[in-house]
Amino acid sequence: MRQFWKLFHSTALTAMVLVILFLSLTTAASVPSDQIFQYIDEHQNEYVERLKDWVAIESDSNDASKRHLVMNMMLLAEERIRKLGGTVEMVDLGMQELPDGNKISLPPAVLGNITKDPKKPTVCFYGHMDVQPAKIEDGWSTEPYTLTEKNGNLYGRGTSDDKGQVLAVLNAIEALQKHELPVNIKILLEGMEEVGSPGLNTLIEQRNSTFFSDVDYIVVTDSSWLSNKPGITYGTRGVGQFFVEVECAKYDLHSGTFGGILHEAMSDLIFLLNTLVDSSGHILIPGIYEAVAPLTEKEKKFYEETEYDPDQIKAKYGIKQFLNKTKEELLMLRSRCPSLSIHGIEGAFSEPGTKTVIPAKVTGKFSIRLAPNMELSVVEKQVTDYLNKKFTERNSPNSIKLTCHRGAKPWLSDTDELQYLAARKAIKRVFGKEADFIRAGGTIPIATQFQDVTRKSIMLLGIGGPDDAAHGQDEKISRNNFIEGTKLYAALLQELAAL
């Protein structure tokens, strides 16, 4: 009997140890998170004040006269990282040539390091400190560069794109440091994202074998959700921007003198633009859809489960009707298929009133959003061949010139990668919901650059809301997204450490 109880005691003790070990492993990330989340809640007003200071800096990268303000914004970000105990390198990205031929310095990139423990995984966050132009006369209801809180929202240029999202990451790091920072952190911040990130690609290539060499995961904060349900972005479309120029004379002409006796450039251009897309939104350029990958069952399920309300979107933006009926059709056509949009005509009279002139030269501007597997060089040839053919059919003596001015490749990641699992768990912990998996219709060139050069795992995990008006009037981020998003980034780092 004594041997039985001895064996039982030994077995029970072993079982108890295994249970305790199991519980410690499964709850290691969740127990301290309660304290961390509480800390974030208690300091949320302080976080809002920091965002107020950041929004106040008019870091408009489009305006060369405000370059010093972009520089100031980079310095403020550097200061915040240093206060977190990080080391920072301000990297010179060279010069920018302006349209008038003058050159000015590009704002430096910020490369930050917080902790360096070889036993811990390393996570690199990317964000940008520059913003789109904003003036109250554009139709803002608040001063764009004065953070204004109303109805639970924080209004101001850059609150969502991208200062608020970057600051949420830094606030999350600070909260974790009060207990333990479970990972190594690297940070890359730039100041020219809104104008194409000049100099950044070279920096990534140059530092791939140094700064990025020990990085395990790269998280891009510059993204938003499709609804109030949190989302993880795993793909974006690329873009090609096209200019088609038609010239009929050396000078603008009087319509009373020349109307009806020559082939007008404007008429030719409108004819060409009208051959690009039919009334259902289908692109008419031959071969344009050939590279689009077939829909998989896994993707189909993502689209079915994604929370997206077309009627709500129509009501918000005053849209009468979409081209497609179902939610799934809309999501697929706006994210995994190419689209063509006509943006404007340069050289045409556009002021109020009338001007009876025949423009000598006009330029139509349109873009094509590229699905993964589509190559811009192939698309450019398809567009060129098609428009030249159509212009020949027009039988016009005028000259035509087509150029592709700027392009960015599409990006697509694997949602089975470990950091996507970590992000799903973090969203579940913070919001109590399963995440939407999103393929965005827009373009984030940095994601492709990171993927092509570093070969690391890339994920877009933003906290922007579906109605934040990132480039428009009354840009905002909700206080809830800002604070709960801070918790999300803290939870993500814990989950990555537990992988």
TrEMBL record:
CDD domains in the record: M20_dipept_like_CNDP
InterPro entries given in the database record: ArgE/DapE_CS, Cyt/Met_Dipeptidase, Peptidase_M20, Peptidase_M20_dimer
Keyword Chloroplast on entry: no
GO MF annotations, alphabetized: dipeptidase activity; metal ion binding
GO biological process, one term: proteolysis
Tagged with keyword GTP-binding: no
Keywords: Hydrolase, Metal-binding, Protease, Signal
Pfam families registered for this protein in UniProt: M20_dimer, Peptidase_M20
PROSITE patterns: ARGE_DAPE_CPG2_2 (PS00759)
Residue ranges occupied by any Peptidase M20 dimerisation domain in the UniProt entry: 236-391
The protein's name: Peptidase M20 dimerisation domain-containing protein
Native organism taxonomy: Eukaryota, Metazoa, Chordata, Craniata, Vertebrata
